Model the fold of this input.
Amino acid sequence: MTLQNEESNSIPVADVVADIDAAESLPELVQETATRNFYEYSLPELEEFLISRGHKKFRAQQVFKWVYEKRVEDYEQMSNVSKAFRAELPTLFHFALPKIVTELKSKDGTRKWLHEIDGMTVETVLIPNKDRLTLCVSSEVGCNMACRFCFTGKQKLKRRLTTGQIIGQFLHAQDSLAKEGLRVTNIVFMGMGEPLDNAEAVFRSIEILHQPNGINMSRKKITVSTSGIVPLIPLVTKSGTRLAVSLNAPNNEIRDFVMPINKKWDVWQLLEACREHYRESGDRITFEYVLLKGITDKLDQARELWNLVRDVPCKINIIPFNEHPGSGFERPTPESVIAFQQELIRLGAHVLLRRTMGRDIFAACGQLTSKYEGRPDRLDVQPGL
Done:
């Protein structure tokens, strides 16, 4: 495949980024229906709502703990809640989670769930490792970013998920694992969609995941990935979570081609935002770098990549391209992948070769999409990198 200057995939992100302050101000949850989905509310919002109905603030904390820590949705089982309040709760809230359509399990233990949301579908992946279980959650059905190597990007954006639909992915996985005495240890917003294209719902869901009265997930166990919506990276910094950046190219020319967002905010602007994140948070940035055969996998590009990022405190995750129908790209040979990694190590980079997980069930990086998008359920692949 040759590198071309193409303008066919324009990126409609101008409407995504307004003012950061505006993005941070969450709208009130006003619904016309008689009850509200409990999973759409952070604890402060739940407290505010119940206070407006004449209840004490601690009532919100009680219910929140029953639902998220003890996984109880039956109000009558909430024994430390007054009978009068228990009787009123069904008139205020209902519990709605995305429906599971299918669950697939890879040869390597990776699990993938297909969730139905308002007649559309979205995928969630659980990635096992020796000391952790990482849940890769989706933030959108489809994606606006149109990265050329990503199957989700071919689908185009169909809708942004709500807070409850994001939290629902976690709860389904957590409830499933609890039956085996296991739990999710880490969360990455690296599934379908660009998280910063749905900042309001993503950061509200992070507040719910972190709340000590409920799930109590450490912010440092949560990673938000972005393709490069530069003005909204400070929201990641403010949230206290880890930052991952899909870099995927050693220069502007190649990044323009594989990631159209680079034409809006180029690599120099992106790297400066990463430096600022480190200055404010003290956290190293994770750069994700997909190896595309003949496009981004050459040894001179490894050297160019290191020169590009060497002054940004970071680690580099290199990811051999994961094939999907009609991509037009190829996966590099294992030998060229190892050579690329070794060259970065020789130069002094902190570099990890991400083990490909779930590739046979289309659960690997860049393979996620909705059902009926021209992709089979399984792929016959050989073990390897």
Summary: Residues 163-178 form the longest helix (16 residues). The two ends are 22 Å apart (CA to CA). The chain has a mean pLDDT of 86.
